[in-house]
Amino acid sequence: MRLTDFWARLDQTFGPAYAPSFAADHVLTELNGRTINQALAEGVDAVVVWRAVVAAYPERVPARLH
After folding, report:
1. Which Pfam families does this entry report, sorted A to Z (predicted)?
2. If DSSP states are collapsed to H, E and C, what string results for 39-56?
3. Stretches in the chain below the pLDDT threshold 50
């Protein structure tokens, strides 16, 4: 998954105003206690990070984006 696709999905899920804050501030257990921004900066593949978001918020992520 390209980073542009990842950010587009995050925007669709959390809204363009909230997605950047969510990525910077929310620590996900699925990412070993890191934020999205930290995981991506450390080289975690975008698809792995996206799967962590889906696992953490399955009710929030639209089914078509799973």
Report:
1. DUF3046
2. HHHCCCCHHHHHHHHHHH
3. none
